[in-house]
What we know:
Elements: H1 6-23, H2 35-49, H3 55-61, H4 67-76, H5 79-91, H6 100-124, H7 127-132, H8 136-165, H9 170-173, H10 177-199, H11 205-246, H12 253-267, H13 272-283, H14 294-297, H15 305-311, H16 314-322, H17 331-337, H18 358-373, H19 384-394, H20 401-414, H21 462-474, H22 477-481
Helix pairs in contact: 1-6, 1-8, 2-4, 2-5, 4-5, 4-6, 4-10, 5-6, 6-8, 8-10, 10-11, 12-13, 12-18, 12-20, 13-17, 15-21, 16-17, 17-18, 18-19
Amino acid sequence: MVGIPVAARAYVAGTAVCAVACALPALTPGAGTPWRPLALLATLYAVSEWPARSPLLGRALGAGSFLPVLLAAALLLPPAAAALVAVPGALISPVEHGPALPRRIWRAARLALAAWTAAHAAVLLGGPAAVATAHFPYALLPAGAAALAFCLVGTALDGGVLAVAEPVPPRDAWHGLLSRSLAPHAVHGLAGLMMAVLWRSPYGWPAALCVLLPMYLSCWMYAQYHREHAAHQATIRALVQAVDIKDAYTRGHSERVGRASVLIARELGMDDSRLDVIRFAGILHDVGKLGVPTRVLRKDGPLTPEERRVIELHPEYGHEIVRGIGFLGEARAAILHHHERMDGSGYPYGLSGDRIPEAARVVAVADAFDAMTSTRSYRRARPVATAVAELERCAGRQFDPRMVRALVRALDRHGWRTAVTADETAPAPAGTAAGTCPADPPPADAGTGADTTAPRPAGRDADAARSDAPARERGGVAAARGPATGPGRGHGRARGGAR
Length: 499
Protein backbone atom coordinates (compact mmCIF):
# COMPACT_ATOMS: atom_id res chain seq x y z
CA MET A 1 0.00 0.00 0.00
CA VAL A 2 2.92 2.29 -0.76
CA GLY A 3 1.79 5.77 -1.70
CA ILE A 4 -1.49 5.56 0.25
CA PRO A 5 -1.76 7.72 3.40
CA VAL A 6 -1.71 5.88 6.71
CA ALA A 7 -5.24 7.04 7.56
CA ALA A 8 -6.50 5.73 4.23
CA ARG A 9 -4.79 2.38 4.81
CA ALA A 10 -6.49 2.07 8.18
CA TYR A 11 -9.83 3.04 6.65
CA VAL A 12 -9.55 0.46 3.87
CA ALA A 13 -8.40 -2.21 6.32
CA GLY A 14 -11.29 -1.47 8.67
CA THR A 15 -13.79 -1.60 5.79
CA ALA A 16 -12.35 -4.93 4.65
CA VAL A 17 -12.60 -6.39 8.18
CA CYS A 18 -16.24 -5.31 8.41
CA ALA A 19 -16.96 -6.87 4.99
CA VAL A 20 -15.35 -10.17 6.06
CA ALA A 21 -17.40 -10.17 9.27
CA CYS A 22 -20.60 -9.62 7.27
CA ALA A 23 -19.86 -12.38 4.74
CA LEU A 24 -18.38 -14.91 7.19
CA PRO A 25 -21.73 -16.45 8.29
CA ALA A 26 -22.31 -17.66 4.72
CA LEU A 27 -19.08 -19.71 4.93
CA THR A 28 -19.80 -21.47 8.22
CA PRO A 29 -20.95 -25.13 8.13
CA GLY A 30 -24.69 -25.57 8.30
CA ALA A 31 -25.41 -22.02 7.13
CA GLY A 32 -27.58 -23.33 4.31
CA THR A 33 -26.02 -20.92 1.80
CA PRO A 34 -27.61 -21.31 -1.67
CA TRP A 35 -24.30 -21.86 -3.44
CA ARG A 36 -25.67 -22.50 -6.92
CA PRO A 37 -27.50 -19.15 -7.37
CA LEU A 38 -24.66 -17.40 -5.50
CA ALA A 39 -22.12 -18.84 -7.94
CA LEU A 40 -24.26 -17.92 -10.95
CA LEU A 41 -24.75 -14.35 -9.77
CA ALA A 42 -21.07 -13.97 -8.87
CA THR A 43 -20.11 -15.28 -12.31
CA LEU A 44 -22.51 -12.86 -14.02
CA TYR A 45 -21.04 -9.94 -12.10
CA ALA A 46 -17.48 -11.04 -12.81
CA VAL A 47 -18.31 -11.44 -16.51
CA SER A 48 -19.70 -7.91 -16.56
CA GLU A 49 -16.36 -6.67 -15.17
CA TRP A 50 -14.21 -8.77 -17.47
CA PRO A 51 -14.55 -6.80 -20.75
CA ALA A 52 -12.99 -3.75 -19.16
CA ARG A 53 -9.82 -5.76 -18.53
CA SER A 54 -9.40 -6.51 -22.23
CA PRO A 55 -7.60 -3.74 -24.20
CA LEU A 56 -9.87 -4.40 -27.17
CA LEU A 57 -13.20 -5.11 -25.49
CA GLY A 58 -12.61 -2.55 -22.78
CA ARG A 59 -12.52 0.24 -25.37
CA ALA A 60 -15.52 -1.17 -27.22
CA LEU A 61 -17.82 -2.06 -24.31
CA GLY A 62 -16.66 0.09 -21.45
CA ALA A 63 -16.33 -0.79 -17.78
CA GLY A 64 -18.63 -3.15 -15.91
CA SER A 65 -19.73 -2.16 -12.40
CA PHE A 66 -23.02 -3.87 -13.18
CA LEU A 67 -25.17 -3.04 -10.15
CA PRO A 68 -28.42 -4.77 -11.29
CA VAL A 69 -26.75 -8.13 -10.60
CA LEU A 70 -25.83 -7.08 -7.06
CA LEU A 71 -29.27 -5.65 -6.35
CA ALA A 72 -30.90 -8.81 -7.71
CA ALA A 73 -28.66 -10.78 -5.33
CA ALA A 74 -29.91 -8.63 -2.44
CA LEU A 75 -33.48 -9.74 -3.27
CA LEU A 76 -32.66 -13.40 -3.94
CA LEU A 77 -30.02 -14.35 -1.34
CA PRO A 78 -29.50 -14.08 2.41
CA PRO A 79 -27.46 -10.99 3.40
CA ALA A 80 -24.21 -12.87 4.04
CA ALA A 81 -24.42 -14.66 0.70
CA ALA A 82 -25.32 -11.40 -1.11
CA ALA A 83 -22.13 -9.87 0.28
CA LEU A 84 -20.04 -12.55 -1.45
CA VAL A 85 -21.48 -11.97 -4.93
CA ALA A 86 -19.42 -8.85 -5.67
CA VAL A 87 -16.09 -10.17 -4.39
CA PRO A 88 -14.76 -12.13 -7.41
CA GLY A 89 -15.72 -9.42 -9.91
CA ALA A 90 -14.32 -6.62 -7.74
CA LEU A 91 -11.01 -8.42 -7.32
CA ILE A 92 -10.54 -8.67 -11.11
CA SER A 93 -11.90 -5.20 -11.89
CA PRO A 94 -9.63 -2.80 -13.81
CA VAL A 95 -7.64 -0.23 -11.83
CA GLU A 96 -6.56 2.97 -13.55
CA HIS A 97 -4.04 4.06 -10.90
CA GLY A 98 -1.88 2.00 -8.61
CA PRO A 99 -1.39 0.41 -6.25
CA ALA A 100 -3.86 -2.08 -7.72
CA LEU A 101 -4.30 -4.60 -4.88
CA PRO A 102 -5.47 -2.22 -2.11
CA ARG A 103 -7.79 -0.51 -4.56
CA ARG A 104 -9.35 -3.85 -5.53
CA ILE A 105 -9.66 -4.85 -1.87
CA TRP A 106 -11.36 -1.53 -1.17
CA ARG A 107 -13.77 -2.01 -4.07
CA ALA A 108 -14.64 -5.56 -3.00
CA ALA A 109 -15.20 -4.54 0.63
CA ARG A 110 -17.29 -1.50 -0.32
CA LEU A 111 -19.58 -3.49 -2.62
CA ALA A 112 -19.86 -6.36 -0.15
CA LEU A 113 -20.98 -4.04 2.66
CA ALA A 114 -23.42 -2.23 0.37
CA ALA A 115 -24.93 -5.52 -0.87
CA TRP A 116 -25.16 -6.88 2.68
CA THR A 117 -27.02 -3.76 3.86
CA ALA A 118 -29.30 -3.82 0.80
CA ALA A 119 -30.18 -7.47 1.44
CA HIS A 120 -31.04 -6.71 5.09
CA ALA A 121 -33.29 -3.85 3.97
CA ALA A 122 -35.05 -6.16 1.51
CA VAL A 123 -35.52 -8.89 4.14
CA LEU A 124 -37.01 -6.46 6.65
CA LEU A 125 -39.68 -5.44 4.12
CA GLY A 126 -40.43 -8.94 2.88
CA GLY A 127 -38.60 -8.60 -0.40
CA PRO A 128 -37.64 -12.28 -0.96
CA ALA A 129 -41.21 -13.46 -0.34
CA ALA A 130 -42.68 -10.79 -2.65
CA VAL A 131 -40.23 -11.75 -5.38
CA ALA A 132 -40.86 -15.49 -4.95
CA THR A 133 -44.62 -15.04 -5.27
CA ALA A 134 -44.24 -12.61 -8.18
CA HIS A 135 -46.18 -9.90 -6.35
CA PHE A 136 -44.53 -7.29 -8.51
CA PRO A 137 -46.27 -4.15 -7.20
CA TYR A 138 -45.64 -5.20 -3.59
CA ALA A 139 -42.02 -5.98 -4.38
CA LEU A 140 -41.35 -2.37 -5.44
CA LEU A 141 -41.05 -1.20 -1.82
CA PRO A 142 -38.38 -3.69 -0.69
CA ALA A 143 -36.55 -3.29 -4.00
CA GLY A 144 -36.55 0.49 -3.59
CA ALA A 145 -35.37 0.15 0.00
CA ALA A 146 -32.57 -2.18 -1.09
CA ALA A 147 -31.43 0.24 -3.81
CA LEU A 148 -31.54 3.17 -1.36
CA ALA A 149 -29.59 1.25 1.29
CA PHE A 150 -26.99 0.24 -1.31
CA CYS A 151 -26.67 3.87 -2.42
CA LEU A 152 -26.41 5.25 1.13
CA VAL A 153 -23.72 2.81 2.22
CA GLY A 154 -21.74 3.24 -0.99
CA THR A 155 -21.75 7.05 -0.86
CA ALA A 156 -20.98 7.07 2.88
CA LEU A 157 -17.94 4.85 2.34
CA ASP A 158 -16.84 6.84 -0.72
CA GLY A 159 -16.99 10.12 1.17
CA GLY A 160 -15.05 8.63 4.06
CA VAL A 161 -12.21 7.35 1.91
CA LEU A 162 -12.08 10.71 0.10
CA ALA A 163 -11.82 12.53 3.43
CA VAL A 164 -8.89 10.42 4.65
CA ALA A 165 -7.05 9.89 1.35
CA GLU A 166 -7.30 13.33 -0.27
CA PRO A 167 -6.73 16.88 1.01
CA VAL A 168 -10.50 17.49 1.07
CA PRO A 169 -12.23 19.13 4.05
CA PRO A 170 -14.55 16.65 5.78
CA ARG A 171 -17.58 18.86 5.14
CA ASP A 172 -16.85 18.71 1.39
CA ALA A 173 -16.01 15.01 1.13
CA TRP A 174 -19.64 13.88 0.88
CA HIS A 175 -20.91 16.97 -0.93
CA GLY A 176 -22.98 15.99 -3.97
CA LEU A 177 -22.22 12.26 -3.76
CA LEU A 178 -25.72 11.20 -2.73
CA SER A 179 -27.60 13.48 -5.12
CA ARG A 180 -25.55 12.22 -8.06
CA SER A 181 -26.04 8.57 -7.08
CA LEU A 182 -29.75 8.36 -6.31
CA ALA A 183 -31.12 8.33 -9.87
CA PRO A 184 -28.67 5.71 -11.25
CA HIS A 185 -29.28 3.45 -8.25
CA ALA A 186 -33.04 3.77 -8.69
CA VAL A 187 -32.76 2.65 -12.31
CA HIS A 188 -30.41 -0.21 -11.44
CA GLY A 189 -32.70 -1.21 -8.55
CA LEU A 190 -35.67 -1.52 -10.90
CA ALA A 191 -33.59 -3.65 -13.27
CA GLY A 192 -32.44 -5.79 -10.35
CA LEU A 193 -36.06 -6.32 -9.29
CA MET A 194 -37.06 -7.40 -12.80
CA MET A 195 -34.11 -9.76 -12.89
CA ALA A 196 -35.01 -11.28 -9.50
CA VAL A 197 -38.68 -11.78 -10.48
CA LEU A 198 -37.70 -13.52 -13.72
CA TRP A 199 -35.13 -15.61 -11.85
CA ARG A 200 -37.89 -16.94 -9.55
CA SER A 201 -40.23 -17.51 -12.50
CA PRO A 202 -40.70 -20.95 -14.11
CA TYR A 203 -38.17 -19.95 -16.78
CA GLY A 204 -35.37 -19.64 -14.21
CA TRP A 205 -32.10 -17.76 -14.43
CA PRO A 206 -31.84 -17.83 -18.27
CA ALA A 207 -34.90 -15.55 -18.39
CA ALA A 208 -33.17 -13.15 -16.00
CA LEU A 209 -30.40 -12.70 -18.53
CA CYS A 210 -32.90 -10.97 -20.84
CA VAL A 211 -32.79 -7.99 -18.46
CA LEU A 212 -29.02 -7.75 -18.57
CA LEU A 213 -28.52 -7.20 -22.29
CA PRO A 214 -30.58 -3.99 -22.65
CA MET A 215 -29.19 -2.71 -19.35
CA TYR A 216 -25.65 -3.40 -20.48
CA LEU A 217 -26.29 -1.61 -23.77
CA SER A 218 -27.73 1.39 -21.96
CA CYS A 219 -24.69 1.50 -19.64
CA TRP A 220 -22.42 1.27 -22.67
CA MET A 221 -24.19 4.20 -24.37
CA TYR A 222 -23.98 6.22 -21.16
CA ALA A 223 -20.26 5.48 -20.85
CA GLN A 224 -19.71 6.42 -24.50
CA TYR A 225 -21.48 9.74 -23.96
CA HIS A 226 -19.28 10.54 -20.98
CA ARG A 227 -16.13 9.59 -22.87
CA GLU A 228 -17.12 11.89 -25.71
CA HIS A 229 -17.99 14.68 -23.29
CA ALA A 230 -14.63 14.25 -21.54
CA ALA A 231 -12.85 14.41 -24.91
CA HIS A 232 -14.68 17.66 -25.71
CA GLN A 233 -13.67 19.16 -22.37
CA ALA A 234 -10.05 18.10 -22.89
CA THR A 235 -10.03 19.76 -26.32
CA ILE A 236 -11.42 23.00 -24.90
CA ARG A 237 -8.96 22.95 -21.99
CA ALA A 238 -5.98 22.46 -24.29
CA LEU A 239 -6.96 25.40 -26.48
CA VAL A 240 -7.63 27.69 -23.52
CA GLN A 241 -4.33 26.77 -21.87
CA ALA A 242 -2.51 27.55 -25.11
CA VAL A 243 -4.14 31.01 -25.24
CA ASP A 244 -3.37 31.67 -21.57
CA ILE A 245 0.28 30.80 -22.10
CA LYS A 246 0.54 33.16 -25.06
CA ASP A 247 -1.51 36.04 -23.60
CA ALA A 248 -0.99 35.61 -19.88
CA TYR A 249 -2.36 38.96 -18.70
CA THR A 250 -5.95 37.88 -19.43
CA ARG A 251 -5.59 34.49 -17.72
CA GLY A 252 -8.97 33.36 -16.42
CA HIS A 253 -10.80 35.79 -18.70
CA SER A 254 -11.95 33.05 -21.08
CA GLU A 255 -13.51 30.93 -18.33
CA ARG A 256 -15.36 33.93 -16.90
CA VAL A 257 -16.65 34.96 -20.32
CA GLY A 258 -17.95 31.41 -20.73
CA ARG A 259 -19.70 31.65 -17.37
CA ALA A 260 -21.24 35.05 -18.14
CA SER A 261 -22.34 33.80 -21.56
CA VAL A 262 -24.21 30.91 -19.93
CA LEU A 263 -25.91 33.32 -17.50
CA ILE A 264 -27.18 35.37 -20.44
CA ALA A 265 -28.22 32.32 -22.44
CA ARG A 266 -30.20 30.90 -19.51
CA GLU A 267 -32.09 34.17 -19.14
CA LEU A 268 -32.92 33.99 -22.84
CA GLY A 269 -34.45 30.53 -22.30
CA MET A 270 -31.96 28.52 -24.35
CA ASP A 271 -32.12 24.74 -23.83
CA ASP A 272 -29.38 22.79 -22.05
CA SER A 273 -27.77 21.42 -25.19
CA ARG A 274 -27.35 24.93 -26.54
CA LEU A 275 -26.00 26.23 -23.23
CA ASP A 276 -22.96 23.97 -23.62
CA VAL A 277 -22.26 25.41 -27.07
CA ILE A 278 -22.65 28.99 -25.78
CA ARG A 279 -20.24 28.21 -22.95
CA PHE A 280 -17.72 26.81 -25.44
CA ALA A 281 -18.11 29.98 -27.52
CA GLY A 282 -17.38 32.19 -24.51
CA ILE A 283 -14.39 30.13 -23.41
CA LEU A 284 -12.85 30.01 -26.92
CA HIS A 285 -13.75 33.50 -28.14
CA ASP A 286 -10.11 34.61 -28.12
CA VAL A 287 -8.53 31.36 -29.36
CA GLY A 288 -7.49 33.22 -32.52
CA LYS A 289 -4.79 34.95 -30.51
CA LEU A 290 -2.77 31.82 -31.15
CA GLY A 291 -2.38 33.12 -34.71
CA VAL A 292 -1.24 36.60 -33.64
CA PRO A 293 2.53 37.08 -33.24
CA THR A 294 3.52 37.12 -29.60
CA ARG A 295 5.56 40.28 -30.10
CA VAL A 296 2.34 42.09 -31.05
CA LEU A 297 0.31 40.72 -28.14
CA ARG A 298 3.02 41.65 -25.64
CA LYS A 299 4.23 44.89 -27.17
CA ASP A 300 4.97 47.54 -24.53
CA GLY A 301 4.36 50.57 -26.74
CA PRO A 302 1.51 51.81 -28.92
CA LEU A 303 0.52 49.58 -31.80
CA THR A 304 1.20 50.65 -35.34
CA PRO A 305 -1.70 50.59 -37.83
CA GLU A 306 -0.28 47.43 -39.36
CA GLU A 307 0.00 45.72 -35.96
CA ARG A 308 -3.54 46.79 -35.18
CA ARG A 309 -4.76 45.20 -38.41
CA VAL A 310 -2.90 42.00 -37.50
CA ILE A 311 -4.46 41.75 -34.05
CA GLU A 312 -7.91 42.43 -35.49
CA LEU A 313 -7.52 39.25 -37.52
CA HIS A 314 -7.79 37.12 -34.37
CA PRO A 315 -11.53 36.32 -34.83
CA GLU A 316 -10.77 34.93 -38.29
CA TYR A 317 -7.76 33.02 -37.03
CA GLY A 318 -9.95 31.59 -34.27
CA HIS A 319 -12.59 30.50 -36.76
CA GLU A 320 -9.94 28.75 -38.84
CA ILE A 321 -8.60 26.95 -35.75
CA VAL A 322 -11.97 25.59 -34.62
CA ARG A 323 -13.95 25.17 -37.82
CA GLY A 324 -13.06 21.47 -38.05
CA ILE A 325 -14.31 20.76 -34.49
CA GLY A 326 -17.83 19.56 -35.19
CA PHE A 327 -19.23 19.59 -31.65
CA LEU A 328 -18.75 23.37 -31.36
CA GLY A 329 -21.66 24.06 -33.70
CA GLU A 330 -22.72 27.71 -33.62
CA ALA A 331 -19.82 28.51 -31.29
CA ARG A 332 -17.66 28.77 -34.39
CA ALA A 333 -19.77 31.66 -35.73
CA ALA A 334 -19.63 33.35 -32.31
CA ILE A 335 -15.82 33.14 -32.32
CA LEU A 336 -15.73 34.75 -35.77
CA HIS A 337 -18.23 37.55 -35.07
CA HIS A 338 -17.89 38.44 -31.37
CA HIS A 339 -16.34 41.83 -32.26
CA GLU A 340 -19.15 42.88 -34.60
CA ARG A 341 -21.29 45.81 -33.43
CA MET A 342 -24.98 46.44 -33.72
CA ASP A 343 -24.38 49.64 -35.71
CA GLY A 344 -22.10 47.86 -38.20
CA SER A 345 -18.85 49.49 -37.07
CA GLY A 346 -17.28 46.29 -35.75
CA TYR A 347 -15.04 43.71 -37.37
CA PRO A 348 -14.15 41.49 -39.19
CA TYR A 349 -17.09 41.95 -41.61
CA GLY A 350 -18.97 44.99 -40.34
CA LEU A 351 -22.19 43.06 -39.75
CA SER A 352 -25.04 44.89 -38.05
CA GLY A 353 -28.22 44.10 -36.12
CA ASP A 354 -29.72 40.66 -36.53
CA ARG A 355 -27.16 39.78 -39.19
CA ILE A 356 -24.78 39.17 -36.31
CA PRO A 357 -25.27 35.56 -35.04
CA GLU A 358 -27.15 35.39 -31.75
CA ALA A 359 -24.35 33.49 -30.01
CA ALA A 360 -21.87 36.20 -31.06
CA ARG A 361 -24.11 38.90 -29.57
CA VAL A 362 -24.22 36.94 -26.30
CA VAL A 363 -20.44 36.56 -26.15
CA ALA A 364 -19.85 40.23 -27.05
CA VAL A 365 -21.75 41.37 -23.95
CA ALA A 366 -20.12 38.75 -21.72
CA ASP A 367 -16.65 39.66 -23.05
CA ALA A 368 -17.14 43.39 -22.47
CA PHE A 369 -18.61 42.86 -19.01
CA ASP A 370 -15.72 40.73 -17.77
CA ALA A 371 -13.16 43.06 -19.36
CA MET A 372 -14.58 45.99 -17.39
CA THR A 373 -14.94 44.10 -14.09
CA SER A 374 -11.48 42.50 -14.14
CA THR A 375 -8.31 44.20 -12.93
CA ARG A 376 -5.78 44.54 -15.73
CA SER A 377 -2.18 45.71 -15.71
CA TYR A 378 -3.22 49.21 -16.88
CA ARG A 379 -6.31 49.83 -14.72
CA ARG A 380 -8.29 48.52 -11.81
CA ALA A 381 -11.54 46.64 -12.18
CA ARG A 382 -14.72 48.68 -12.39
CA PRO A 383 -17.59 47.93 -10.02
CA VAL A 384 -20.27 45.68 -11.45
CA ALA A 385 -22.84 48.49 -11.30
CA THR A 386 -20.56 50.77 -13.32
CA ALA A 387 -19.93 48.10 -15.92
CA VAL A 388 -23.66 47.44 -16.24
CA ALA A 389 -24.33 51.14 -16.67
CA GLU A 390 -21.78 51.26 -19.52
CA LEU A 391 -23.35 48.24 -21.21
CA GLU A 392 -26.79 49.81 -20.97
CA ARG A 393 -25.49 53.12 -22.34
CA CYS A 394 -23.96 51.36 -25.34
CA ALA A 395 -26.92 49.05 -25.96
CA GLY A 396 -28.22 49.47 -29.49
CA ARG A 397 -24.95 50.86 -30.84
CA GLN A 398 -22.37 48.31 -29.75
CA PHE A 399 -24.40 45.65 -27.93
CA ASP A 400 -27.72 43.92 -28.46
CA PRO A 401 -30.11 45.46 -25.89
CA ARG A 402 -31.79 42.08 -25.36
CA MET A 403 -28.48 40.50 -24.31
CA VAL A 404 -27.70 43.39 -22.00
CA ARG A 405 -31.10 43.11 -20.30
CA ALA A 406 -30.61 39.36 -19.92
CA LEU A 407 -27.23 39.89 -18.23
CA VAL A 408 -28.71 42.49 -15.87
CA ARG A 409 -31.48 40.07 -14.85
CA ALA A 410 -28.93 37.26 -14.36
CA LEU A 411 -26.71 39.46 -12.19
CA ASP A 412 -29.70 40.49 -10.06
CA ARG A 413 -30.54 36.83 -9.62
CA HIS A 414 -27.10 35.25 -9.18
CA GLY A 415 -24.62 38.07 -8.56
CA TRP A 416 -21.08 38.05 -9.92
CA ARG A 417 -17.75 37.18 -8.38
CA THR A 418 -15.13 39.45 -9.87
CA ALA A 419 -11.59 38.17 -10.29
CA VAL A 420 -8.14 39.70 -10.63
CA THR A 421 -6.34 38.90 -13.86
CA ALA A 422 -3.23 40.98 -13.41
CA ASP A 423 -1.38 43.39 -11.15
CA GLU A 424 -3.41 44.59 -8.16
CA THR A 425 -1.36 47.81 -8.04
CA ALA A 426 -2.75 49.19 -11.28
CA PRO A 427 -4.01 52.79 -11.31
CA ALA A 428 -7.68 53.53 -10.75
CA PRO A 429 -9.94 53.45 -13.81
CA ALA A 430 -10.20 56.63 -15.78
CA GLY A 431 -13.48 58.25 -16.69
CA THR A 432 -15.40 57.40 -19.81
CA ALA A 433 -15.04 59.76 -22.74
CA ALA A 434 -18.29 61.08 -24.12
CA GLY A 435 -19.64 59.18 -27.08
CA THR A 436 -17.53 56.05 -26.59
CA CYS A 437 -18.68 52.53 -25.75
CA PRO A 438 -16.03 50.70 -23.71
CA ALA A 439 -15.56 47.00 -24.07
CA ASP A 440 -12.05 46.96 -22.62
CA PRO A 441 -10.62 50.38 -21.69
CA PRO A 442 -7.12 50.87 -23.11
CA PRO A 443 -3.98 51.94 -21.31
CA ALA A 444 -2.85 55.55 -21.53
CA ASP A 445 -1.43 56.30 -24.96
CA ALA A 446 1.91 58.07 -25.04
CA GLY A 447 1.07 59.44 -28.46
CA THR A 448 -1.78 61.66 -27.17
CA GLY A 449 -0.07 63.53 -24.42
CA ALA A 450 -1.64 61.37 -21.73
CA ASP A 451 0.12 60.20 -18.61
CA THR A 452 2.73 57.69 -19.72
CA THR A 453 3.59 56.35 -16.30
CA ALA A 454 0.82 53.73 -16.31
CA PRO A 455 2.18 50.31 -17.25
CA ARG A 456 1.27 48.87 -20.62
CA PRO A 457 -0.49 45.49 -20.66
CA ALA A 458 1.80 42.53 -21.07
CA GLY A 459 -0.66 41.27 -23.64
CA ARG A 460 -3.69 43.02 -25.08
CA ASP A 461 -7.04 41.95 -26.37
CA ALA A 462 -8.44 43.27 -29.61
CA ASP A 463 -10.61 45.96 -28.04
CA ALA A 464 -7.68 47.55 -26.24
CA ALA A 465 -5.54 47.35 -29.35
CA ARG A 466 -7.99 48.82 -31.81
CA SER A 467 -8.93 51.63 -29.43
CA ASP A 468 -5.45 53.21 -29.74
CA ALA A 469 -6.08 54.40 -33.28
CA PRO A 470 -9.25 56.48 -32.74
CA ALA A 471 -7.68 58.04 -29.65
CA ARG A 472 -4.67 59.17 -31.68
CA GLU A 473 -6.85 60.39 -34.52
CA ARG A 474 -8.93 62.54 -32.15
CA GLY A 475 -5.78 63.67 -30.36
CA GLY A 476 -7.71 64.23 -27.14
CA VAL A 477 -6.20 63.51 -23.75
CA ALA A 478 -9.61 62.57 -22.37
CA ALA A 479 -10.16 60.14 -25.21
CA ALA A 480 -6.83 58.48 -24.56
CA ARG A 481 -7.33 58.30 -20.80
CA GLY A 482 -10.91 57.10 -21.08
CA PRO A 483 -12.05 53.91 -22.73
CA ALA A 484 -12.33 54.82 -26.38
CA THR A 485 -12.94 51.57 -28.15
CA GLY A 486 -15.02 52.71 -31.10
CA PRO A 487 -13.27 51.43 -34.21
CA GLY A 488 -12.57 53.61 -37.19
CA ARG A 489 -14.73 52.96 -40.22
CA GLY A 490 -13.31 50.44 -42.59
CA HIS A 491 -11.85 48.15 -39.91
CA GLY A 492 -11.98 44.60 -41.07
CA ARG A 493 -12.45 45.53 -44.71
CA ALA A 494 -8.90 44.83 -45.82
CA ARG A 495 -8.21 41.32 -44.75
CA GLY A 496 -5.67 38.90 -46.02
CA GLY A 497 -5.60 35.16 -46.03
CA ALA A 498 -7.41 34.48 -42.75
CA ARG A 499 -10.75 33.51 -44.22
